[in-house]
Amino acid sequence: MKGPGSFAAAIFLSLLAAAVPAKAQTPLPEGIQIGLSTDNVSITAGFSGADLTIFGSLENPDPLVARQGRYDVIVVLEGPPKPVVVRRKDRVLGVWINLESETFENVPVSYSVATTRPLQDITEPNSYKQLSLGASNLYMQPADAGESPATIEEFTAALRERKAAAGLYSENVGGVQFLSQNLFRATVRLAPNVPVGTHKARAFLFKSGLFIKESSAQLEIRKSGFEQSIFRVAHDYSFLYGVFAVSLAMVTGWLGRLVFRKD
Amino acid sequence: MGIYLPIAEISVNVFVLLAMGAAVGFLSGMFGVGGGFLITPLLIFYNIPPAIAVATGANQVIASSFSGALSHMKRGTLDFKLGGVLLAGGIVGSTGGIYVFAFLRRLGQLDLFISLLYVVLLGTVGGLMLVESVNALRATRSGAAPVLKKSGQHNWIHRLPLKMRFRASKLFVSVIPVLGLGAGIGFLSSIMGVGGGFIMVPALIYLLKVPTNVVIGTSLFQIIFTSAYTTLVHATTNQTVDVMLAFLLMAGGVAGAQYGAKAGQRLRGEQLRALLALLVLAVAIRLAIDLFVTPPNLYSLSGAGLN
Questions:
Q1: Backbone angles phi, psi at B7, to 5 degrees
Q2: Which band of pLDDT confidence, cut at 50, 70 and 90, is reported for residue A263?
Q3: How buried is residue B65: exposed, middle or buried, by Cβ count under 10 Å (0-12/13-18/19+)?
Q4: Mean pLDDT, to the nearest integer, of B202-212?
């Protein structure tokens, strides 16, 4: 925070913010804030994936650093954590059978990342590990810690690969754009099969490769309308739902015969 | 046009499902089978989770068999008494099947078991039917009068005790094989999502010697109730019945079935059986290939609880 950068920041702040002239000599720490236009998103029958836009702003950015593009922002939309079983097929008598399996606790069902630049250009692999940031650095907690590290590593890699293949773990490089020195816009992907529940949006601010600050907000994703009612009835009134399914089939069969009768 | 399936929790194409229903409905009307043995594998090929494909398949079967049974009832080719006894066995078998289903699902072996059952059953039934119908076709072509099984030619099944008279089928037979057949088919219905017509029809014809004209109606009659029961139990214990998916399949299915039934009347019995046998074998081979071919992904994910 020393050098010409802080000087410029001081002038900038004293010009703009008359309320803090006394403290303007030492630059205020940078911060980051994000805001969601809504705190719940509803999935309807036609849902085939969507882009979710998250706006955010930097607090007290250093104009020089900002001009040089040395601020980086990573925004993550993380789905609700759920236990997951990863199974591996092996050949038994020529037939592929699920043999080995590994259970992981608290795996985010979905994980979409948007960044200003490619992840490897923003900071060191080690700081990603420490922050547990990015699909490939996300820490997966095995349920059975007694398993050999090689096995756990193999199944963790498979878990990430399967999630990515299902579109649930995604990365949008360039998905975060600065609209002005302070304001940025992040676009994260919602997969067509995005899980319902409480999602957490988190924004990470980096300055010249150093992690500065994190901010988060919550987002509820739920099924809306007709589908939601069906899902709820199927779970809460499962017997009545079954009776309805059977009756629907009989009525359809009967009507179909009336309409399309050929004999 | 995409539609979101509330239980399967994925988006699918409406027209693909309608067409799938119509094609299977056409075949089921033509051959007098529910079509579940085609619908369930097709849904699995279309990436519907097997557990949901099975339960929803059972639901769809009700519509096509109800529609078919109505036609047979009108023609008087339905033996209610025989159907009732088959049904009593079916309820017992279906209940057992549901427990095995839930158990295998917890183990992570449900998909494998479903595929294996399909391959073994479809392969056996298809093979037997093909041999029989090709022999019959050859016999008629060479001009020899078809060797009709006389009612006097009884097999071991007809020597079992507890005999019962089924008037509409002109049958006097022990209830043990009838109950057993019903139970076996009920079990398969709940695990495979099939009505069981593809086993019931040949079993009634070849094992119990029920006249062919009564077989289809009676089989459809018992299938309505076995699959209704299976649907109910799957809905309450596993919550895997997707009505939206089932309805699309049914809507296509009932339309196709009526045209299929019409087309079926123009074909002769042996030809019809040979075609059905080929179809059954084709599905079995397709599923068998999947078991042996190295899968594109060796790893699969599932929730630790259900599904």
A1: -95, -45
A2: low
A3: buried
A4: 79
Q: Say if A48 is an interface residue toward chain B (CB within 8 Å).
A: yes
Chain A residues touching residue B70 (CB < 8 angstroms): 253-254, 257
Per-position b or e across A114-148, b if 16+ CB within 10 A of its CB? bbbeebeebbeeebbeebebbbbbbebebeeeebe
Residue B166 burial class via C-beta count within 10 angstroms: exposed 0-12, middle 13-18, buried 19 and up: buried
Please write the tens of the pLDDT for every residue from B64-89.
888 878 878 887 777 888 888 888 99
> Considering only CA atoms, which of B58, B6, B229, B21 is closest in space to residue A256?
B21
CATH class belonging to A30-223: mainly beta
Which ipTM did the prediction report?
0.80
Identify the H or E element spanning A183. Answer: strand A183-190
Q: Read out DSSP for B147-170? A: -PPPTT---GGGG-SSEEEETTTT
On the 0-12 / 13-18 / 19+ scale of CB atoms within 10 A, B13 is middle
Strands A141-142 and A169-173: unpaired
CB–CB contact A245 B59 (8 Å): yes
Q: Across all residues in chain B, what is the average pLDDT?
A: 80
On the question of pLDDT at B126 being above 80, the answer is yes
Task: Give the closest of B4, B243, B255 to A47, CB-based.
Answer: B4
Please indicate if any CB of chain A lies within 8 Å of the CB of B60: yes
User: For chain B, what are the domain ranges?
Assistant: 13-140+158-292
Q: What residues does each domain of chain A span?
A: 30-223, 224-255
Rounded Cα–Cα distance for residues A196 and A231 (Å):
12
CA B112 – CA A97 distance, rounded (Å): 7
- A141 Cβ under 8 Å from any chain B Cβ: no
Cβ distance B108 to A253 less than 8 Å, yes or no, reads: no
Per residue in A68-82, pLDDT tens?
888 889 999 998 888
Is the pLDDT at A123 greater than 60? The verdict is yes
- Chain A nearest-CA distance from B56, in A, is 9
**Tokens 């030809």 found at:** B271
pLDDT band at A6, cuts 50/70/90? Answer: very low
What's the DSSP call for residue B204?
I
Tell me the C-alpha distance between B79 and B73, whole Å. 9
Whether A47 contacts chain B with CB within 8 A:
yes
Question: Residue B152's pLDDT band (boundaries 50, 70, 90)?
Answer: very low
The answer to whether the CB of A135 falls within 8 A of the CB of A164 is yes
Side-chain half-sphere of B70: how many Cα atoms within 13 Å?
20
Q: What is the pLDDT of residue A5?
A: 42
Q: Per the CB < 8 Å rule, is A252 touching B250?
A: yes
- Give residue A244's pLDDT: 92
Query: A33-80, pLDDT tens digit by residue?
Result: 888 877 778 877 667 778 888 898 888 888 888 888 888 899 999 988
Write the DSSP string, B106-140. HHT-HHHHHHHHHHHHHHHHHHHHHHHHHHHHHHH
Q: How far is A133 from chain B (nearest CA, A)?
A: 22
Tell me whether B285 touches chain A (CB under 8 Å).
no
Inform me whether the C-beta atom of residue B72 falls under 8 Å from chain A C-beta atoms: no
Strand-pairing partners, residue A95, are: A92
